[in-house]
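R.M. (postdoc): so does anyone remember the format we settled on? I'll just put the structure tokens first.
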């Protein structure tokens, strides 16, 4: 256990850099989980969390019963380092306005989408092109995990999926699916077996006209500009979500939630037609 009181400490500077820099997170292969719920979710998903590099706990956090339980659980993993800091220093490290007093440094899972494409991939997945808002991406990841999606493919210009803001918005969902970053989405769409459905508010065919009972891939695009022509051409169908109201389009996360759970609804109805 190590107690830190100075902002000039090397590890403190590293933590602050991890909070702010996507490039540094990618280079180091590490990110930060800030808060009790995220750390609990991580421990729930990985019963032997070899990727848990360190726990940082504030003075106030040491008095929190939930944090004490987490600390005791992590103490069994000898590779995990423990750091205790003052409340004022923790405020400087954390990017949360009202931090709970604990954060963890964890290894970002290494993923490579090429091997699964060579295996004639067929499943329920989503492709995301140029999603820029961290809250939107986090919410989409959370919805995907709730809908039992195993894989998400992100284009090269999406916001960093492992940024603290995206992690908080996803509420721990990252640990229950595979996230493939820096993907060539046209290549992915062309290799996937099953329906590939792109969403556009201008499409004449709607979501509710589609049979979604088999393998389906949904493609969602940038919050402002939508999908590129290249990815639209790679889709089997372009569909819209009926909007009888006066708004022109939906938030990307809202559109994703509607599509994913229409698929869930149709699947459940197919398995339980009497309900």
């Amino acid at each position: 256990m190590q107690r830190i009181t100075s902002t000039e400490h090397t590890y403190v500077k590293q933590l602050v850099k991890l909070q702010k820099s996507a490039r540094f997170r990618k280079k180091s292969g590490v990110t930060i989980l800030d808060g009790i719920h995220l750390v609990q979710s991580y421990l729930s998903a990985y019963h032997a969390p070899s990727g848990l590099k360190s726990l940082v706990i504030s003075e106030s956090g040491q008095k929190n019963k939930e944090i004490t339980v987490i600390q005791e659980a992590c103490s069994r993993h000898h590779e995990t380092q423990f750091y205790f800091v003052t409340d004022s220093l923790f405020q400087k490290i954390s990017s949360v306005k009202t931090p709970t007093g604990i954060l963890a440094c964890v290894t970002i899972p290494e993923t490579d989408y090429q091997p699964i494409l060579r295996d004639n991939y067929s499943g329920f997945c989503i492709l995301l092109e140029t999603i820029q808002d961290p809250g939107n991406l986090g919410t989409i990841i959370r919805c995907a995990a709730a809908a039992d999606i195993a894989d998400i493919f992100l284009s090269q210009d999406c916001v960093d999926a492992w940024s603290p803001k995206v992690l908080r918005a996803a509420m721990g969902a990252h640990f229950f699916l595979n996230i493939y970053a820096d993907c060539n989405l046209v290549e992915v769409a062309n290799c996937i077996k099953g329906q590939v459905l792109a969403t556009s508010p201008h499409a004449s065919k709607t979501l509710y006209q589609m049979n979604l009972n088999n393998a389906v891939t949904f493609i969602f695009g940038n919050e402002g500009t939508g999908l590129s022509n290249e990815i639209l051409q790679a889709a089997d169908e372009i569909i819209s979500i009926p909007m009888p109201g006066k708004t022109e389009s939906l938030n990307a996360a809202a559109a994703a939630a509607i599509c994913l759970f229409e698929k869930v609804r149709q699947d459940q109805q197919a398995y339980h037609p009497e309900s």
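R.M.: ...and that's the designed sequence above, right after the tokens. Also worth knowing: The first strand starts at residue 2 and ends at 4. The CA atoms of residues 53 and 80 lie 5 Å apart.
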